[in-house]
Write a structure and sequence with these properties.
Elements: H1 2-14, H2 19-26, H3 33-48, H4 54-65, H5 71-80, H6 85-93, H7 98-109, H8 117-129, H9 134-141
Helix pairs in contact: 2-3, 4-6, 5-6, 7-9, 8-9
Amino acid sequence: MDELRQRALRLLARREHSRAELRKKLAPHAESEEQLERLDALLDDLAGRRLLSDARYAEMRVSSRSARYGNARLAQELKQQGVSAEDCAGALEEAGDELARAHGIWARKFGTLPVDAADRARQTRFLMSRGFSGETIRRVMRGETPEPEQD
C-alpha cells in the first residue's frame, strides 16, 4: 500500500489527474483484490486531503485546451476521464465565450469568409472537428464577431 501511495503522489506531483484516471494507472500495480480495495481507500484519503480533485482536474484540462477546442469536445474529453457532469459544467463556464474562441481559431486558419459552398463546407467541417456547436459555427460563418469583453 505504501508503494501505491508513493506512486500516486509521484503521478499527482507531475500534473492533476481525475480520480478515474489515477485509479486506472494504479490498478495494475495492485497485486491482490485486497490491495484493489485499499486503492479505493487511498483515493478517498487523497481526495480528503485535497491532493486529488476532479473539479481541479477539469479546470486545468479546460484551461489548457480551450484555446483550441469547443465545449462539446472538452466535455467529451472530461467525460472519458470520469469527471462528473457538475464538475465538467463548472469548468466549461470558466472557458470563456465559445464564439470568441471559435472566431479566433477560424481567423487564424482561414481569415476570410467562404466564397462558395465547397469552401463553406470545408470551414464548417474544420470547426466541427474542433468540437464547436452548430450555432457557434453558423454565427462564425455569417461573419459575426464576438463582442469585446468589458471590465
